[in-house]
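Ticket 4471: requesting a sanity check on a complex prediction with fe (ii) ion. Repro inputs:
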Amino acid sequence: MDAGGHPGVRVPEFAPVVSGDSSTQSFPMLISENILAALNEQVGNEFSAFLQYTAIAAHFDRETLPLLAAHFYRQAEEEKQHAHKFIKFIVDTSGKLAIPAIRRRRIRFNLPRTPCGSRSSRRRR
Ligand SMILES: [Fe+2]
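Returned structure tokens:
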């Protein structure tokens, strides 16, 4: 599978979570353990945003609002690309990628009311 926006770069279908002692790696890490931890946390934040935007896009898709759905699918893709940029930086500095668990979030959608109000409120007038 080619990575979107990265011609010639191949990414595995399944990216395993890697963690462990960085002292066993063959190349010295070019960043501190604290920076590595912060970068790995940010990778999780970016993937979390990707999932939230995907859920929003799917909601609008189901509501047959294709333009809104497309907007949020694009936003989701952008967040995924952010995660990949952080991952590339981690790898380029010989850090070990440790994607944190993504917390499950319940996303509720409250659709905005129309300017004219609901049908039942118009009938009461
Ligand atoms: Fe982002």
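Notes from triage: Confidence is low (pLDDT under 50) at residues 1-6, 9-17, 113-122. Leaving this open until the requester confirms.
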